[in-house]
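User: Sequence recovery, please. Input:
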């Protein structure tokens, strides 16, 4: 039995946001957000994509979004590659999701709390060894806590180094699952008493995927491997020719290759337009290109950013 990678966008959404994932997501969120206490009794998994409600705002692409007990919204992002300004993107997505709850002419009292849970496959905070961190607004000198309207949680996978026999609780069990599922051939007996993790393994089993889902999974795996390769190359070039220039060249090369795989040969005109994009626009294109099914989709996207 082989399992899909929970660290990919496809794998994470498949495991935690499928129709059969409700109890899985409840258990996972109770572990990460509430120290494994059964605080969340019920939730609703909702569409994680948010088009801009105000002209000029960026679209928001999240991995999982849910409404939990207490009418709190939770957004979850699984991030494998440490892209430029990622920490700013976390804050932007949280603030935008919180603010766009209001409809025109509604009062601020209609706003409900928001929790942003971010899982990274890289170290984000060098000044702590904790793999799970929690941030709220507080007064700097006296540590007085502001209203908990927006909370940020982070799980840094590289900081979790426990072996299976060292796993002690539900929090560690879920982090172990996300980090190590693809290395396992069967469901560990240690997790036999946790039905939600057993369900997660069942959802993640490649034998339970359709042919189309397997193809999509392999495409996403290849994409992330290309990303890693492009970043490694850009860093090497960056040390020789300037980090920013090397990063951009590597990113453009990756995007060209991915678009070619999805839509066929790219015309010189389109290549030229992509090469003229700003670093921020290249980041956006990298996030969106997996949703393109034809070069018309790419051209429409390029027209939208140049409008």
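Assistant: Recovered sequence (307 residues):
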């Amino acid at each position: 039995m082989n399992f899909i990678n929970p660290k990919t966008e496809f794998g994470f959404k498949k495991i935690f946001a499928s129709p059969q994932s409700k109890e899985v997501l409840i258990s996972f969120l109770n572990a990460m957000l509430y120290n494994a206490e059964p605080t969340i009794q019920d939730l609703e998994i909702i569409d994680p994509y948010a088009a801009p409600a105000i002209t000029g705002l960026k679209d928001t692409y999240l991995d999982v979004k849910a409404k939990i007990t207490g009418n709190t919204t939770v957004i979850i992002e699984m991030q494998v590659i440490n892209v430029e300004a990622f920490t700013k993107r976390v804050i932007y997505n949280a603030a935008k999701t919180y603010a766009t709850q209001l409809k025109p002419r509604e009062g601020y009292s209609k706003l409900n709390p928001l929790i942003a849970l971010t899982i990274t496959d890289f170290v984000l905070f060098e000044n702590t060894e904790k793999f799970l961190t929690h941030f709220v607004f507080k007064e700097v000198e006296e540590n007085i806590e502001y209203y908990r309207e927006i909370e940020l949680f982070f799980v840094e996978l590289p900081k979790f180094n426990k072996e299976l026999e060292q796993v002690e609780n539900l929090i560690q069990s879920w982090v172990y699952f996300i980090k190590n599922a693809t290395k396992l051939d069967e469901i560990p007996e240690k997790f036999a008493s946790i039905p939600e993790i057993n369900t997660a393994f069942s959802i993640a089993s490649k034998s339970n995927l359709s042919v189309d889902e397997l193809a999509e999974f392999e495409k996403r795996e290849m994409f992330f491997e290309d990303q890693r390769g492009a970043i490694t190359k850009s860093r090497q070039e960056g040390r020789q020719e300037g980090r920013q220039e090397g990063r951009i060249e590597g990113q453009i090369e990756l995007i060209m290759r991915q678009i070619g795989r999805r839509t066929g040969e790219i015309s010189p005109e389109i290549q030229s337009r992509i090469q003229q994009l700003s670093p921020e626009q290249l980041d956006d294109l990298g996030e969106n290109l997996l949703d393109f099914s034809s070069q018309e989709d790419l051209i429409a996207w390029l027209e939208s950013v140049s409008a």
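The longest helix spans residues 211-241.
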